[in-house]
What we know:
Helix content: 10-25%
Number of strands: 7
Shape: globular
Number of helices: 4
Strand order of the largest sheet: 1-2-3-4-5-7-6
Largest sheet: 7 strands, mixed
Radius of gyration: 16 Å
Strand content: 25-35%
CATH architecture of the domain at 17-148: 3-Layer(aba) Sandwich
CATH class of the domain at 17-148: Alpha Beta
Structural class: alpha+beta
Distance between the termini: 17 Å
Order of helices and strands: EHHEEEHEHEE
CATH topology of the domain at 17-148: Aminopeptidase
Amino acid sequence: MTFSQPTPGLATAATPAIRMAGEADLAPFFAYLDDHLRDNGRGGTPLFQPLPPGESRMPPGLRLAFIRGLQVPVGEPGWRRLWLALGPTGNIVGHIDLRSRPEQAARHRTMLGMGVHRLYRRRGLGRQLLDTGVAWARFEPGLDWIDLEVLADNRPAVELYLHAGFRMIARIEDMLRVDGAGCDLCYMSLKLA
């Protein structure tokens, strides 16, 4: 099964195509992600990053992690894989990434991150991206779990993950402070086998 081609059945005018990203995709991805992060906590969008609204930008260290991580073999420290959802004109309208955990003894687990452009939310794209990442991980030797962290107030994301089979492992009250307000953080996991 290959995951570098668009997911079958997703390339319609109303539904974006999803494909694995390569190095050439990183510059447009970084522009998309920087724009996406501007929505954090603004205009009725819940906080999806523990950053104050208006200060949400892609940190330089994250750029470097993507650049380096796409070249690292899965199972090695620092690996990362990225899928992009492309709109009708080829513009990026969503993403999902899986990456190594920082702990050496956790090579059998992967961390998940994802986002959907404001104009494509609540249309099923998040679930399609999630299905793509999970399907790839199921066929990747040595990966047994997908883990993620999500702010508890981001109910659409929490519900998406629960419906996809992720279990709530913990909810830590007041784990983070954003603009002086306490934010609960949820840890969720999905067993792949």
